[in-house]
Amino acid sequence: MERLTIQEEEVMLYIWEAGECFVKDIVARFPEPRPPYTTVASIVNNLKRKGYVSTKRIGNTYQYAPLIRQSEYKRTFMGGVVRNYFANSYKEMVSFFAREQKISADDLKEIISLIEKGKE
Predict the structure, then answer these.
(1) pLDDT tens, residue order, the chain (120 aa)
(2) Residue 12: how many other CB atoms lie within 10 Å
(3) Which of 59, 62, 74, 104 is the most buried (most CB within 10 A)?
(4) Axis-axis angle for helices 37-49, 6-18 (nearest 10)
């Protein structure tokens, strides 16, 4: 699975959210000032080339749908972040965010609760 650029990830988020959509639907989801239609169409074509979206011709346009689930993408690339930046330690990653005050004590308690529920 090829890593996506920031722009490609942003477009994929819209596609994952919509399920099936047209380029015009993606453009409409962007806040003002919206990117040009041609720019978004080019990004979607890159996503197709990379195997992230499928196309279905409808009239004189194409409908796009995700080929890769968002959870699969997250799992693949978050694993790389943990491996490359946190010595392959999720504990180190969580500690980093706690030290940087990006995660609260309540968030940590919720995470612990989720982990304990997963063990049941």
Answers:
(1) 788 999 999 999 999 999 999 999 999 999 999 999 999 999 999 999 999 999 999 999 999 999 999 999 988 888 888 888 888 888 888 888 888 888 888 888 888 888 888 765
(2) 22
(3) 62
(4) 90
Does the reported pTM lie above 0.85?
no
- Token pair, residue 30, equals 């962007």
Distance separating alpha carbons of residues 102 and 9, to the nearest angstrom:
22
Tokens of 59: 């009239």
CB distance 97 to 103 below 8 Å: yes
DSSP SS3 for 53: strand
SS3 of residue 113 by DSSP:
helix
**Amino acid making up residue 89:** S
Instruction: Report how far residue 29's alpha carbon sits from residue 31's, in angstroms, rounded to the nearest whole number.
Output: 7
**How far, CA to CA in Å, does 40 sit from each of 8, 45, 109?**
9, 9, 40
